[in-house]
Specification:
- The chain is mainly beta.
- Helices cover 9% and strands 39% of the residues.
- The protein contains 3 helices and 15 strands.
- The protein has helices at residues 59-65, 145-153, 221-228; strands at residues 5-15, 44-58, 88-103, 106-109, 112-122, 132-134, 137-140, 157-164, 171-172, 179-186, 202-212, 231-233, 240-241, 244-245, 259-267.
- The longest helix is centred in the middle third of the chain and has 9 residues, at 145-153.
- The protein starts with a strand and ends in a 9-residue tail after the last strand.
Length: 276
């Protein structure tokens, strides 16, 4: 898919976690430390280094990707104020690394990457105005059972993801002009010619390739603040993830302000249906 715009950003968050890792590892050397761990010691906090891609697709196509019970729950009037046509829908793709996750100012969970499609502006309550974001599938590293269990608790279908790079939000291409992020999924069919990361067999699950741009993005930054603070839910719509994202800290301003980028996103099933 060719996309219009997406934004790369780093921000701290407050979330909930039901268990801890006794030997957490902070592997992302390019990520900044958690700036709010001492401010909210009784909450799980951390930083997210992410690229959030916005793909403007026909509204009818977006509805076909959603479970039937949510297909008619998109609040178009909630996103048209962000310069998006009511006939289109902002499908969101997120490539993320969670870093420096703490509780009582002590590390509790190793850094981990994830890759997902997200559907914002879902009126889950049916009240005509509140907005939630739905995630059906998420790729996570099999080596992080706490992240897997937590995601499954929210109703996400977790798929085994192997990331390139494994411990960073992206890597530069050989000419240094673009940045890429790729996730592979292990498959059961053993085909050495498709091997990645020592897996018996794997397939490309998704990838992004982007470059910075000085052009004014057509979708304002306020849109990204909005969607990253919508309550998230999965296939178990009675359990939600209330993660609060902060955009006014030392790692979201000045030299660390979000960057506007443009590029390409590739998605494979089950994130999108297989072409026939």
């Amino acid at each position: 898919m060719r996309i219009a715009w997406f934004t790369s950003f780093l921000f701290p968050y407050v979330a909930e976690l039901c268990s801890v890792n006794l030997s957490p590892q902070a592997n992302c050397t390019s990520c900044l430390p958690n700036p709010i761990a001492t401010t909210y010691p009784n909450n799980i906090t951390g930083t997210i280094n992410a690229t959030t891609s916005v793909i403007l697709v026909p509204l009818s196509y977006a509805r076909s990707l959603l479970p039937s019970r949510f297909a008619n729950s998109i609040l178009t009037n909630a996103y048209t104020r962000f310069n998006i046509s009511p006939t289109l829908y902002p499908l969101v793709v997120e490539s993320v690394i969670d870093h420096d996750i703490r509780f009582n100012n002590s590390p509790v969970l190793s850094d981990f990457s994830s890759f997902r499609t997200t559907f914002p502006f879902i009126n889950l309550l049916g009240d005509g105005y509140s907005t939630f974001r739905y995630t059906g599938f998420i790729y996570l590293p099999p080596s992080n059972p706490i992240a897997i269990n937590g995601s499954q608790g929210y109703g996400y279908t977790v798929l085994p993801g192997y990331f390139d790079p494994p411990d960073a939000p992206y890597k530069y291409t050989r000419n240094g002009r673009a940045r890429s992020f790729t996730v592979f999924e292990q498959t059961s069919n053993s085909t050495p010619s498709t091997s990645h990361y020592g897996l018996a067999s794997s397939r490309l699950a998704g990838s992004t390739l982007f470059r910075t741009t000085s052009s004014q993005p057509p979708i304002p930054l306020s849109f990204y603040r909005n969607i990253t603070n919508q309550i998230a839910f999965g296939n178990n719509s009675k359990v939600c993830d209330r993660m609060i994202s902060f955009w006014n800290t030392s790692i979201t301003t000045g030299a660390y302000e979000p960057q506007a980028v443009v590029g390409d996103v590739l998605l494979s099933p089950p994130l999108v249906p297989e072409r026939k």
